[in-house]
UniProtKB/TrEMBL annotation:
<keyword id="KW-1133">Transmembrane helix</keyword>
<keyword id="KW-0472">Membrane</keyword>
<dbReference type="InterPro" id="IPR036596">
    <property type="entry name" value="Cyt-C_aa3_sf"/>
</dbReference>
<feature type="domain" description="Cytochrome c oxidase subunit IV bacterial aa3 type">
    <location>
        <begin position="7"/>
        <end position="43"/>
    </location>
</feature>
<protein>
    <submittedName>
        <fullName>Aa3-type cytochrome c oxidase subunit IV</fullName>
    </submittedName>
</protein>
<feature type="transmembrane region" description="Helical">
    <location>
        <begin position="21"/>
        <end position="42"/>
    </location>
</feature>
<dbReference type="Pfam" id="PF07835">
    <property type="entry name" value="COX4_pro_2"/>
</dbReference>
<dbReference type="InterPro" id="IPR012422">
    <property type="entry name" value="Cyt_c_oxidase_su4_bac-aa3"/>
</dbReference>
<keyword id="KW-0812">Transmembrane</keyword>
């Protein structure tokens, strides 16, 4: 078995997954804030 060397693994799939997760968190946070502002404006 070949000895493990740091920095040689292809992590492109993990990077795409992480980028998608960050985008999902960003847009979910925006949706929650917009919803809370709308509720505050509607309820006066």
């Amino acid at each position: 078995m070949e000895k493990h060397r740091i920095g040689t693994m292809d992590i492109s799939v993990q990077e795409k997954t992480f980028a998608g997760f960050i985008a999902w968190v960003k847009w979910t946070t925006v949706a929650i804030i917009v919803s809370l502002v709308a509720l505050a404006l509607i309820n006066g």
